[in-house]
């Protein structure tokens, strides 16, 4: 066997193993590796992490995962009663590692941009520091492209993009003034942010925009850590609040009995990504994970599009395939 033939066989084996991992893993390979051999979430013990959209879903699951390892938290959302419940769940998960003062409830509407600075001061007055901002608040969408009211486009961008950018800028300025530019900005994006799906045009565009904003931030501020976490279909109640194409309307559907990655697993993987200061990571059950890899390659995306009908993509997104 010649050296060239040997290299060719190794290359074939490499791609075979890689494709196999796409099928059996529930996240990208790098994130899986870090979850097994990277920094433990416990390395963040004592740090202060501010999570928006923390009252349910991924935000709640992330908060509990971090609390389990002694990470101090700021829980923000509009719904105070749910925040109090999440606070109690975090303290129970911490098993003595955290006191009630270590899990701060900060009720806020991220759309009220004029109050962002005051909320940041509240965090700093309470903890005297902030290590990580997790922008998790946001809403999804289900609508036909041609039927979407332009005001819906604006409203979704205000929530999923501009509120995130505004709050992040304030926190980055704090990092620059107090920490020499060192700090961590994280955000919940979506696989739809680099692999668009049908009937969610505004949402896909918003996540693309968010990814671009945060990637640009990382290029400008090299000392800053930026994590873009892009989940696929997750078992949360997000469809209840999702935008439609009509202003003021909500989808109001349940994701029960759909095949989706659990919020708990998603929150754990998000915590791993933050603890290891990873840049872009994603998660989802097969075939979502494999599709995410293909979406990172223009040629594979084009090939995949020839075999994936609109109906098939809908089934995958809605956890029915």
From TrEMBL:
Domain called Ketoreductase: residue spans: 47-237
Q: Which residues cross the membrane?
A: 6-33
List the keywords (alphabetical).
Answer: Membrane, Transmembrane, Transmembrane helix
Tell me if Nucleotide-binding is a UniProt keyword of this record: no
SMART domains xrefs: PKS_KR
The source's domain of life comes to Eukaryota
Q: What's the family? A: Belongs to the short-chain dehydrogenases/reductases (SDR) family.
- Name of the protein: Dehydrogenase/reductase SDR family member 7
